[in-house]
Amino acid sequence: MKKIINWKLFFLLIVVCAVTGVMVLPFTYALAPLPDNAPMQIIIPAQIAQTLVLSALASFFGLSLAHRFWRKLQAVKSERVI
Q1: Could you give the CA distance from residue 24 to residue 74 in angstroms, rounded to a whole number?
Q2: What is the DSSP secondary-structure string of 7-75?
Q3: How many angstroms separate the CA atoms of 41 and 38, rounded?
Q4: Is 16 left (phi over 0), alpha (psi -120 to 50) or beta?
Q5: Orientation of helix 7-31 relative to helix 40-79, angle to 10°
Q6: In whole angstroms, how large is the CA radius of gyration of the chain?
Q7: Distance of CA 22 to CAs 4, 18, 30, 43, 66, Å?
Q8: Of 1, 15, 23, 31, which has fewest CB within 10 angstroms of its CB?
Q9: Angle at CA 57, nearest 5°, toward 56 and 63?
Q10: Quick one: CA torsion of 55, 60, 62, 64, rounded to 10 degrees?
């Protein structure tokens, strides 16, 4: 089976993004306070889930593009005559 991306690096990026997303929450709510009737038990998990989904998409596409460009770069380097 062809290896598309480095899965260990992918999951490491997801974990780091989740941790930093949780660490940014207090700063986010300090800048834009929520109304008094906002259900925090729904908003916080939804925001963490949104961070996970967006970071997973960005990490996957970034790593797959990096893999493709790295292969093309190696092909160009091997064709070069020094």
Answers
A1: 39
A2: HHHHHHHHHHHHHHHHHHHHHHHHHSPPPTT--HHHHHHHHHHHHHHHHHHHHHHHHHHHHHHHHHHHH
A3: 9
A4: alpha
A5: 140
A6: 19
A7: 29, 6, 14, 12, 27
A8: 1
A9: 85
A10: 180
> What does pTM read for this prediction?
0.75
The residue behind tokens 């970071």 is 55
> Which amino acid is residue 64, in one-letter code?
S
**Could you tell me the two tokens for 33?**
């306070």
Dist CA 1 CA 34 (whole Å): 48
Mean pLDDT of 23-50: 88
